[in-house]
Amino acid sequence: METPGPDRLDIAGHLFMDRQGRSVILRGVNLGGDCKVPWPDGGTHHPADFSDHRDVSFVGRPFPIDEADEHLGRIRHWGFNCLRLLTTWEAVEHAGPGEYDIDYLDYYAEICRLAGEHGLYLFVDFHQDVWSRMTGGDGAPGWIFELLGMDFRQFGRADAAHVMQYQYDYSNPRANQPQYPSMSWAHNYRYPANGIMWTLFFGGRDFAPDTRIDGRNAQDYLQGHYLAAQREIGKRISHMDHVLGFGTLNEPGRGWIGRGVSQRITSDNLPAEPAIPGPAWSPLDALYCVSGHSVELPMMDFKWQKLAIAPVGLWTANPDNQTIFVDGARDPFRGLAWDLDKSGRPVVIDEDWFRSAGGH
Question: Do 247 and 126 contact (CB within 8 A), yes or no?
Fold first, then answer.
């Protein structure tokens, strides 16, 4: 017997209410972590250089359609009544700007419909972690880097990002390896590639006014495509009463907005961004590094003597002097926040470049 879909909910103060005026408690589960990577061979346990990024498919994440009733029925039987259903920008628009994966959109909409048949409310999580798979997480499609003149295949060699597929020894049977410690992916919010992308995404108009893609400022272009990808999902499921809404952006980064150009976080000198274990980058360090130069950085870790995160040594980033920019391209902040002097050394043009804009 087919299970009827759950009632449409209304909001009364701090409560969710059904059509009979009863308050509803949502007991949710995340579905699921594997939605962040393509099907079937996109997991981090497969070596990759992401060169197939335009041709991947996310159909089958979180599970094939013919297995959906089994999984959704089990979730409902366990007492859950709500799903946080993951998807990503890359899943929708991986093939290129405005080229939406219709097969995936139809698949996602069908998963949503079937969830309702099993009495499950649904919250769409447009997910990301440290920007993209190419920068150590998931989220944005790879062609964005190409439009900005960035070669993500060089991110590992240039230390622009801490990416498992570049760090891991896949011939080693050990799951935990010292060059890629558990949970070290989160450090990428402080690494150069994330610094560039999040600063452009949230502050491109102010901090890189001349960086344009197809005639639009990078901020407007990136946000426009991101929201348009969400809209494609929304058009297919907005009529479903059990769909509660959208998570607009999971755990976004701030890039270098609010940072001094030469400011390294080596203590609690920036309350909004405390010191963490790992290399302590300044925006200047990061931009100089990925422009093709080695950089010596303080390495941070917990010191018991101080009961605090503090410098414990030095680390040389990009020892091969590898640039991440293709011929004819360079970082969008050079000549604005920083530049090279006549001897080829990095110099700050405006220490407050990322701290203020338009008098604010």
Answer: yes
**CA–CA dist 196, 290 (Å, integer):** 10
Taking a C-beta distance cutoff of 8 angstroms, is the pair 198, 207 a contact?
A: no
The length of the chain is: 360
Among candidates 111, 102, 100, which has minimal Cα distance to 60?
111
Q: Is the predicted pLDDT of residue 274 greater than 50, yes or no? A: yes
Backbone angles phi, psi at 243, to 5 degrees: -85, 115
| Over residues 126-131, mean pLDDT | 98
Q: What is the DSSP letter of 269?
A: S
Q: How far is CA 223 from CA 17, 111, 202, 260, 273, in A?
A: 34, 26, 8, 25, 24
Distance CA 149, CA 133 (A): 18
For 229, counting Cβ atoms within 10 Å of its Cβ (0-12 exposed, 13-18 middle, 19+ buried), the class is buried
Q: Give helix then strand counts, H and E, for the chain.
A: 8, 14
The upper half-sphere exposure of residue 198, i.e. CA atoms within 13 Å in the direction of its Cβ, equals: 27
Is the pLDDT reported for residue 3 higher than 80? Answer: no
Confidence of residue 342 (pLDDT cuts 50, 70, 90): very high
pTM (global) more than 0.85 = yes
Q: What angle do CA 251, 256, 257 make, to 5 degrees?
A: 85
Q: Which residues contact 295 (CB under 8 A, 6 or more apart)?
A: 285, 288, 289, 316, 317, 318
Total Cβ atoms within 10 A of residue 235: 11
User: Taking the CB of residue 52, how many other CB atoms lie within 10 A of it?
Assistant: 13
Cα torsion 301, 304, 307, 311: sign: negative
Mapped onto helix, strand or coil, the DSSP state of residue 67 is helix
Kind and range of the H or E run holding 193: helix 192-207
Both ends of the chain: CA-CA distance in Å?
61
Q: Which two tokens stand for residue 271?
A: 């309350």
The secondary structure of 200-232 as a DSSP string is HHHHHHHH-TT-EETTEEHHHHHHHHHHHHHHH
- Alpha carbon of 202 to those of 181, 236, 253, 256, 260: distances in Å? 30, 28, 9, 10, 17
The two beta strands, 82-88 and 28-31, are parallel
